[in-house]
Design goal:
The strands form 2 sheets. The chain has a 3-stranded antiparallel sheet with strand order 1-2-3. It has a 3-stranded mixed sheet with strand order 4-5-6, covered by helices on one side. The protein is α+β, with helices and mostly antiparallel strands and 141 residues long. The N and C termini lie far apart (35 Å). It folds into 2 domains: 33 residues; 95 residues, 2-Layer Sandwich (GMP Synthetase, Chain A, domain 3). β2 and β3 form a beta hairpin. Helix content is 33%, strand content 39%.
């Protein structure tokens, strides 16, 4: 199967240092630092990239589940909110909220919700992140 790579380089101490994260494909390279991770400073952070990966993976998984059930989606839009919280042992990703809005012709609300939950359960990134609470709010547009 496919192996995907990404790399990061960090220079300096935690609070005064800085780094870059780069996807192996070269499609993205972004700066990150203490302020972009723990405050609202400029740059990206690991949680934001995990959110992008989870939103993309869920959207693709949902497209497959819908296709297997005989539906062709016109649009699947997903946002992931990744919560980084302080706990006794330091920081942890405790919760990911997936919010989805999809346009799918010929599907009823009940079937839509059933298939969305199936996609959430079977998405490879959801499986990887199963230690965090993952919620899904899906809306048929």
């Amino acid at each position: 199967m496919a192996v995907r790579k990404a790399r990061a380089e960090w220079k300096g101490g935690l609070e005064d240092g800085s780094g870059t994260m780069t996807l192996g494909s070269g499609a993205f390279s972004g700066e990150f630092g203490f302020k972009s991770r723990f405050e609202n400073g400029p740059g990206t952070n690991p949680e934001e990239l995990i959110g992008a990966a989870h939103a993309g993976c869920f959207s693709m998984a949902f497209s497959k589940v819908l296709g297997d059930a005989g539906f062709r989606p016109r649009s699947i839009r997903t946002e992931a909110s990744v919560h980084l919280d302080r706990s006794d042992g330091g920081f942890s990703i405790t919760r990911i909220e997936l919010t989805n809005e999809s346009q799918i012709d010929g599907i009823d609300e009940s079937k839509f919700r059933e298939l969305a939950e199936t996609a959430k359960r079977n998405c490879p990134v959801s499986k990887l992140l199963a230690g965090a609470e993952i919620t899904l709010t899906a809306r048929l547009a």
